[in-house]
Specification:
alpha+beta, Uridine Diphospho-n-acetylenolpyruvylglucosamine Reductase, domain 2, Uridine Diphospho-n-acetylenolpyruvylglucosamine Reductase, domain 3, Uridine Diphospho-n-acetylenolpyruvylglucosamine Reductase, domain 1, 3 domains, binds flavin-adenine dinucleotide
């Protein structure tokens, strides 16, 4: 055991000790990683017992239905136990990936060499100040608030995923976003369980500080949303609220493909100059200075383009779908082709709305 390193029993007895590692070469790194992983396995088995799964196929837990295995997998349904396990992971430096319904993720074919924690903490308390644990599905939260006559989430009908995932990407549709409803967020960060205000989240279009952390590949000590409080200003009639939501749902069904996807793959482009010069854009979009990514992809003639089993949907070009036994690499190759062609034709660099997770080394 190297200098300053603790055995699994020591760690279990004395959690909280951090140690630094110096990696001199690749083989030392690999040996240390194998070493770490067996200690990590022991710690996780201790903490989670029979609830810990090993080598779990991630295609089962992502809406694109692709991706390799998670070395360990745990579905958390109790928020206090979740906070305890997150603390253990932070103390033992066990890498973890926190997911909701996997509806905004592209997991690599090599999978994830750590613990994937799936969020199933679903408790809610509905009122003008609604408290929701972050694993409740967004659709269920909309239905619960609508039944209580609380208006404000109608646009969320048909967005898959959890409230936690929605907060990370400031999910939205039909000019609504979750950000403006947020009053406070309970987060676990760097071993601490704390409550922060909405300004801390730094919400912007399909973005937040947590999303930027995820994109930067932050691992140890990364922040997890445990729950949130949403404020509903508008009281209304449940039937009227539901009818408004159903209109959005009908529009969604008419436009979106049924095949496995992660929704819109790229973010729309907010660029007044581009919106003014591209031919065929609707007057509303031109005025707002927004060019839908799907519009650009279609204008490049890429609707229906295939890469292995992946396709830029013939129904909605910004939905990259798993048409037929796609691999994660097929989807990423397709995404790269789409980006290159849009860059070539319009001089615009599309940004992914979908997050790449797992081990992507050598994917091409
Ligand atoms: C058919 C379809 C339609 C869609 N339509 C829309 C739409 O209209 N608008 C829209 O905004 N999105 C849409 N999406 C994308 C997606 O549903 C949303 O982004 C959703 O909010 C993601 O939630 P999730 O629980 O699935 O997150 P995941 O995909 O599981 O995770 C996404 C990211 O959030 C992180 N994360 C998840 N939960 C937490 C948490 N509690 N704490 C910290 N980090 C967390 C994960 O680590 C990951 O980085 C669509 C997707 C599909 C498949």
């Amino acid at each position: 055991m190297g200098e300053g390193r603790l055995s699994a029993p020591q760690l279990r007895a004395c959690a909280g000790v951090c140690y630094t590692r110096r990696m001199h070469d690749r083989s030392e790194h690999d040996t240390m990683r194998r070493h770490d992983r067996s200690e990590h396995g022991a710690i996780l088995r201790d903490a989670l017992g029979p609830w810990l799964q090993e080598q779990e196929p991630m295609a089962r837990h992502t809406t694109l239905r692709v991706g390799g295995t998670a070395r360990w997998f745990w579905a958390a349904s109790d928020v206090e136990q979740l906070a305890r396990v997150l603390r253990v992971c932070a103390q033992a430096q066990i890498p973890y990936l926190f997911i909701g319904h996997g509806s905004n993720l592209l997991m690599s074919d090599r999978g994830y060499d750590g613990l994937v924690i799936q969020n199933r903490c679903k408790h809610t308390q509905i009122g003008t100040e609604t408290q929701a644990e972050s694993g409740v599905s967004f659709g269920s939260l909309f239905a619960q608030t609508a039944r209580a006559g609380l208006a404000g989430l109608e646009w969320a009908i048909g967005i898959p995923g959890t409230v936690g995932g929605a907060l990370v990407s400031n999910a939205g549709a039909y000019r609504g976003n979750i950000g403006p409803l947020v009053q406070s967020v309970r987060v676990f960060q760097d071993g601490e369980d704390t409550t922060v205000g909405p300004e801390w989240m730094e919400f912007s279009y399909r973005d937040s500080r947590l999303r930027r952390l995820a994109e930067a590949g932050a691992q140890i000590g990364r922040t997890v949303i445990l729950s949130c409080t949403l404020r509903f200003a508008e009281q209304g009639d449940p039937d009227t609220i539901m009818a408004r939501a159903k209109e959005y749902q009908a529009q969604r069904r008419a436009k979106q493909p049924y095949a496995p996807s992660a929704g819109s793959f790229f973010k729309n482009v907010v660029d007044k100059e581009l919106a003014a010069r591209v031919p065929g854009l609707s007057p509303g979009m031109r005025e707002a200075g927004v060019v839908p990514a799907g519009f650009l992809i279609e204008a490049c003639g890429l609707k229906g383009l295939r890469e292995g089993g992946a396709e830029a949907s013939a129904k909605h070009a910004n939905f990259l779908i798993n048409a037929e036994g796609a691999t994660a690499s097929d989807l990423r190759r397709l995404a790269e082709t789409v980006k290159a062609r849009v860059q070539e034709q319009f001089g615009v660099s599309l940004c992914e709305e979908v997050l790449y997770v797992g081990d992507w080394s050598g994917w091409a």
